[in-house]
């Protein structure tokens, strides 16, 4: 078991709040097979995934997995199954949107984090910010994007497989919109179900 700390960024982007949040996350990095990347930190840090079972980010994610047919009563159960939760932006947003420069800069922190997981089979990009961040990372490292431009609705059912990892573009499972938009909840559930089934096929 390893205590992970998200990298602390020293750049002060103008469109995010600077919590300098570095949660201590106990994770068996060898066990992780699926990484789910959401958009940004919550405005209240006690709502972050690993802050506890009552944290809003955990509860909406728990519900998303329940919609897909998977019951996790605790963050420990989720981790034991080989799932790791994180965000593309390591600060919370000030408004609804952030600049491409902010996403690109923060992708360096996400890249450091993802490099710890050597056995990952699936990366789920939950929302446009996560998709853009992953594309910045792979463009920088390997010279090409892994997920093409286009609306998530149109591309989410396509297969994106690169260097042994399957990428699933989806919608964010955190925040108030998850509890409102039933059509997106249904699509998120489908994407989680497909991602989990892919991991199990790879392990068979």
Automatic annotation (TrEMBL):
Signal peptide: none annotated. Transmembrane segments: none annotated. Residues 60-150 form the Uracil-DNA glycosylase-like domain. InterPro entries: Uracil-DNA_glycosylase-like, Uracil-DNA_glycosylase-like_sf. This is Uracil-DNA glycosylase family protein. It comes from Paenibacillus puldeungensis.
